[in-house]
Design a protein that fits this description.
With 245 residues, this protein is of the alpha/beta class. The protein has one domain: Spore Coat Polysaccharide Biosynthesis Protein SpsA, Chain A, CATH 3.90.550.10. 37% of the residues lie in helices and 18% in strands. A 7-stranded mixed sheet has the order 3-2-1-4-6-5-7, with helices on both faces. The longest helix has 19 residues. The chain is globular, with a radius of gyration of 17 Å. The N terminus is likely disordered.
Length: 245
C-alpha cells in the first residue's frame, strides 16, 4: 500500500545524500531550484552534494550551472556536449553520485523539494521510494499516455507501480553497484526499477504534489522521444527478464 509522506523526528541511519537534477534548456528554472535545494538540504542534517547534469542545453543552462557551482563547493556540474537524452542524463547523475542516498528530480521545478525530507523514514525500511503524482498538472492527452505507458511496462516487467516515470525518486546508492544501465531515453526509470525488482530490492510508493511548469518547455511528449522509448522497451525486455536475481 502507498502512504502519504509524514514528518518524522526519528534520526536517520544514513548520513549523506546526493541530489541531482537532469536539465535540458532549463535556464529560467535552474537557479530557483538549486536555491531551494540548498535551503532544504541544509536543514536535513546530512552531508550532501548537488549535481547538475546539463544535457547539451543551448539556452545558457550550462553556463549558469557553472556559475552556481563556483559559488558553492557542494555543487557539481556534468556537461554533455550534445543532447544525449533523458536516460543518458540520469545515468550520468547516478554514476556521479557519491553519497549513501541518491535523489533526483527534473530541472523543471514541477515538484516541491520540501517533500523530500519526509521520505527519509521510508528509505530506512525500503531500498527505493518511488513517488507518484497525486494531481498531475498536464493536459489529458499526456495524462492518458502516462497512464497507458505505466500499465504497459508494469505488465511487461511484472511491476506494480502507479506512476513509473514520476521524477521524484529516492534510492539507496548501493542498488546501482554493478547495475548495467543502457537506456538513453525515457525508458530509464523502467529499466532501473525493473532491474532493481529482479534483484529483490524493495520499493515503496508515495504520493507527492505536482505543479504546473513555471518556465521553459516540456520535451517528453515529442514523437521521437516516444518512439525511442518503445524501441528501447522491446529491445531490453528479454534482457531484463533473463537477469538473475
Amino acid at each position: 500500500m502507498s502512504a502519504q509522506p509524514t514528518p518524522s523526528s526519528a534520526a536517520s541511519s544514513f548520513r549523506s545524500i546526493s541530489v541531482f537534477f537532469p536539465c535540458f534548456n532549463e535556464r529560467e528554472n535552474l537557479e530557483p531550484l538549486v536555491r531551494q535545494a540548498l535551503d532544504v538540504l541544509g536543514k536535513m542534517g546530512l552531508d550532501y552534494e548537488i549535481i547538475i547534469v546539463d544535457d547539451g542545453s543551448t539556452d545558457g543552462t550550462g553556463a549558469l550551472a557553472d556559475a552556481l557551482a563556483a559559488e558553492n563547493p557542494r555543487i557539481k556540474v556534468i556537461h554533455h556536449p550534445v543532447n544525449k537524452g533523458y536516460g543518458a542524463a540520469l545515468q550520468s547523475g547516478f554514476r556521479a553520485a557519491s553519497k549513501e542516498l541518491v535523489f533526483y528530480t527534473d530541472g523543471d521545478r514541477q515538484f516541491d523539494l520540501n517533500e523530500l525530507p519526509p521520505l527519509l523514514p521510508l528509505i530506512e525500511q525500503y531500498d527505493i521510494v518511488s513517488c507518484y503524482r497525486m494531481n498531475r498538472q498536464e493536459g489529458w492527452i499526456r495524462r492518458f499516455n502516462g497512464f497507458a505507458w505505466t500499465r504497459l511496462v508494469c505488465l511487461l516487467f511484472h511491476l506494480k507501480l502507479k506512476d513509473i516515470d514520476c521524477s521524484f525518486k529516492l534510492y539507496r546508492r548501493k542498488i546501482f553497484d554493478g547495475m548495467p544501465l543502457v537506456s538513453t531515453g525515457a525508458l530509464i526509470d523502467t529499466e532501473v526499477l525493473a532491474r532493481a525488482a529482479r534483484k529483490g530490492y524493495t520499493i515503496k510508493q508515495v504520493g507527492v504534489h505536482h505543479y504546473p511548469r513555471r518556465a521553459g518547455k516540456a520535451t517528453g511528449a515529442k514523437l521521437r522521444v516516444i518512439a525511442r522509448a518503445f524501441y528501447e522497451l522491446f529491445k531490453l525486455r528479454k534482457t531484463i527478464l533473463k537477469q538473475q536475481p
